[in-house]
Amino acid sequence: GLADAGIAPGDRVAVALERTRYVVPALLAVMLLGASYIPIDPEYPPLRVALMGEPAKLFLCDAETEDAVPADRRVLVLEDLLGANPYQGEIRAKRDAVAYVLFTSGSTGKPKGVCVSHENLLNFVASMQKHPGFGPDDRLLAVVTMSFDISGYEMYVPLAAGGSIFMAEREAAQDGRDLVALVAKHRINVLQATPSTYRLLETAGFEPRGLRALLGGEVVPPDLAGWLLAGGASVYNCYGPTETT
């Protein structure tokens, strides 16, 4: 469907989707064509969505998030593409091409896009597979919005390692009791989240034994790290993946 819409190497595609089973295939499809995606949280204010989507040739959304797309922009709705013929062409992505564009907070002016290349991403994924480590038996619960830079870890490190990803819906990711239930249900042993999310788990009575806990996005309070370590988790501060990737 994206190829039929004329998406070509060098194009930008704004992707406004919630965490569903279609997110990862949609992002991979954009990159397969040599284009790059701009991940946009559909809950962002309309002005920010419009600013982030300015460089995009079109918006990719679904029936639930279509209302978040500016009225004057070209849109592809995911449900309309599901019956399309499989793409039979070559992989158009190149190592030095841009894989995705992440936007800064804009707290000091207009938000700015940071271009992350395939080579950058490959280096990051390979490094994270080695340390803290991720293998085919590991199981990760994805809890962050696509527009947050650590979402790249959640999606691509498990895929590259042959491991498993379980997508938490937005409401569940904001409720400590729901998160505890999801970790138990899916036998999760790797979680990457903000310290605020780990606080939700702590308050809900979570026992972190055996968890590989990656923290980022905020300063890690010493007492929170202490709680995780005392509970039997291994703890890693992974702040700054936009810049370091």
Supply the key terms.
10 helices; 245 residues; four-stranded parallel beta sheet; alpha/beta; 35% helix; 11 strands
Word description of this protein:
Helix 4 packs across helix 5 (151-161). The protein has helices spanning 23-32, 46-53, 78-81, 118-133, 151-161, 170-173, 176-185, 195-203, 222-230, 241-244; strands at residues 12-15, 36-39, 58-61, 75-77, 98-103, 113-117, 139-142, 164-167, 190-193, 212-215, 234-237. Strands 8-7-9-10-11 form a five-stranded parallel beta sheet, sandwiched between helices. With 245 residues, it is α/β, with parallel strands linked by helices. It is built from ten helices and eleven strands. The two termini are 30 Å apart. The protein is 35% helix and 19% strand.
Number of strands: 11
Q: Kindly state the percentage of residues in helix.
A: 25-40%
Largest sheet: 5 strands, parallel
Shape descriptor reads globular
Order of helices and strands: EHEHEEHEEHEHEHHEHEHEH
Q: Gyration radius, to the nearest Å? A: 18 Å
Strand order of the largest sheet: 8-7-9-10-11
How do the strands and helices of this protein lay out in sequence?
Elements: E1 12-15, H1 23-32, E2 36-39, H2 46-53, E3 58-61, E4 75-77, H3 78-81, E5 98-103, E6 113-117, H4 118-133, E7 139-142, H5 151-161, E8 164-167, H6 170-173, H7 176-185, E9 190-193, H8 195-203, E10 212-215, H9 222-230, E11 234-237, H10 241-244
Parallel strand pairs: 1-2, 1-3, 3-4, 7-8, 7-9, 9-10, 10-11
Antiparallel strand pairs: 5-6
Helix pairs in contact: 4-5, 7-8
